[in-house]
């Protein structure tokens, strides 16, 4: 049987420095992205620019929660129930918004590369549509993270204060199963299926092309896929 005391000691020893490294590197990288898009380039030129800026903002929100998680891994949760709910919800908002924004990027690349005629017709309105899509992403992500805000509680387990989800007591844990199933299906698997479809068609289209620009676009696709895989680790 796993010794929970050993697990707590391990977390307290290794998680805080890891969290601080992620915090520092992530803050520098994402603030640089925000600075480039808001100061150097002065304006957002493409739909992908809008999505990447929103991805950076989502990551910065998550990074603001890491100091709380670092302290929690050492001393337990000492920040009260309000911050427990906020940190839990922001963590999920970051995850879902990241998934959905990467999905938006895949759809944008699909339209630009595969549906070229449609892309030309929508050229003047693409920035407007991208901002509208981002508004929808943030709203939908907040709704998917609402259970964290509702069920996150501060509990005492064997003398350790934890910030954890406490679902309503009902037969067969129906509330927990329903919430997790909805979040996983709508917030992960559905965006994943959309991305798989878009990128499979994009890669097939680019492999059939011989122009330099097409192959350059293929490299961009692989970078986006790599970022997606890295974000799920």
Automatic annotation (TrEMBL):
Coiled coil: none
UniProt keyword Oxidoreductase, yes or no: no
PROSITE patterns: G_PROTEIN_RECEP_F1_1 (PS00237), G_PROTEIN_RECEP_F1_2 (PS50262)
Key words, A-Z: Disulfide bond, G-protein coupled receptor, Glycoprotein, Membrane, Receptor, Transducer, Transmembrane, Transmembrane helix
Gene Ontology BP, a term: calcium-mediated signaling
The name this protein goes by in its record: G-protein coupled receptors family 1 profile domain-containing protein
InterPro entries found in the cross-reference section: CCR1-9-like, CXCR4/ACKR2, GPCR_Rhodpsn, GPCR_Rhodpsn_7TM
Sequence intervals crossing the membrane: 18-38, 50-70, 90-111, 132-152, 177-203, 215-232
Compartments where found: Membrane
Domain named G-protein coupled receptors family 1 profile: residues: 29-233
Record-stated family: Belongs to the G-protein coupled receptor 1 family.
Pfam families in UniProt: 7tm_1
Entry keyword Lipid metabolism: no
Highest taxon in the source lineage: Eukaryota
GO CC terms of this entry: external side of plasma membrane
Gene Ontology terms for molecular function: C-C chemokine binding; C-C chemokine receptor activity
């Amino acid at each position: 049987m796993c010794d929970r005391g050993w697990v707590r000691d391990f977390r307290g020893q290794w998680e805080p420095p890891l969290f601080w490294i992620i915090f520092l590197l992530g803050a520098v990288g994402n603030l640089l992205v925000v600075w480039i898009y808001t100061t150097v380039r002065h304006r957002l030129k493409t739909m992908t620019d809008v999505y990447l800026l929103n991805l950076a903002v989502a990551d910065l929100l998550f990074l603001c929660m890491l100091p709380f998680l670092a302290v929690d891994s050492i001393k337990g949760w000492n920040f009260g129930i309000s911050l427990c709910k906020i940190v839990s919800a922001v963590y999920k908002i970051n995850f879902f918004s990241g998934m959905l924004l990467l999905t938006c990027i895949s759809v944008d690349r699909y339209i630009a590369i595969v549906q070229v005629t449609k892309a030309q017709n929508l050229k003047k309105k693409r920035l407007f549509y991208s901002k509208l899509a981002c508004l929808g992403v943030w709203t939908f992500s907040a709704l998917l993270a609402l259970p964290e805000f509702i069920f996150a509680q501060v509990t005492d387990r064997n003398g350790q204060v934890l910030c954890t989800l406490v679902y309503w007591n009902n037969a067969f844990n129906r509330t927990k199963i329903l919430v997790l199933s909805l979040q996983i299906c709508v917030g992960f698997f559905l965006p994943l299926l959309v991305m798989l479809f878009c990128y499979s068609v994009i890669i097939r289209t680019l492999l059939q092309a011989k122009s330099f620009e097409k192959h350059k676009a293929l490299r961009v696709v692989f970078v986006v896929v790599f970022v997606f895989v890295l974000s799920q680790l």
